[in-house]
Amino acid sequence: MLRLDGVSKAYRVGTFGGKQLRAVSDVSLEMRDGEVVSLIGESGSGKSTIGKMILRLISITNGTIAFDGRDISALRGKALKEYYREVQGVFQDPFSSYNPIFKADRVFEIIRGHFFPGVKDREWTDKVHRSLESVGLNPKHVTDKFPHQLSGGQLQRFLIARALLLDIRFLVADEIISMLDASTRIDVLNLLADLKARGLAVLFITHDLSLGYYISEKAAILYRGCVVETGETEKIYGNPMHPYTQMLMASVPRLDQKWEEVEIELRAKGEEQTSGCVYYERCPSNRRRESCRDRRPTLIEVESGHFVACCDAGEENE
Q: What three-state secondary structure class fits 120?
């Protein structure tokens, strides 16, 4: 369905754009129909940048993104419009997606104007109501209201319902529950699981390890724009191989024991590493090799369905 091959994104920074900042570097991922893949990493790791490139909100510097075998960067006009019929995104802050001076259901009218201009009023109302009901909202209670009269969870469901009006096949869900309260989070997660059962593929972007484990069959761990570990979620969580993944897992609070303090020395402050392993400066001394400074490891299969970009992990499994 959706395939990323060697995708990179670089921004011009500094005086007169004399320097380059690589937000994403050589990322390759593949997603199939009805599959949920979690993209996990800390803030600034490039997760949202990947989502925006998939949605054509920003351009790709290098590499290709293909949907059903077709390079999306080449889509124009009608072809791009058809792409958006099948691929949509929902973002972290639901309030930012609404104009406060208009009622919330105006987002549906925008979809109607672009994709369903010939649909009659009665037919359109029925279609909107079915879409709202499919995400657990009662149309009588939420339509004809302003954004400030609805909760964050209701507004997120509005945006998902808007996407479902197009019968989409792929959803970019970028931190969509991070601003919601605990009781609403589980409702939205269960909604995504229900949509997955209907065949919808989801790229679930998150920094929360527990959420990634709860919802996805596959996961990709992102660090400084590079995928350092990817594969089946159970295998990554059950047997993390990359030092960064191991550090993330060790940082998760445990209810059955005291939270152990994790100390990591970060020596490369503010400097972009252009060669070698992106995790070199943070890697534990017992794992770090001098050769890692100049040689960037590639993803290798350490077990079936489990890939790691770490020379030390690779040698352990030879």
A: coil
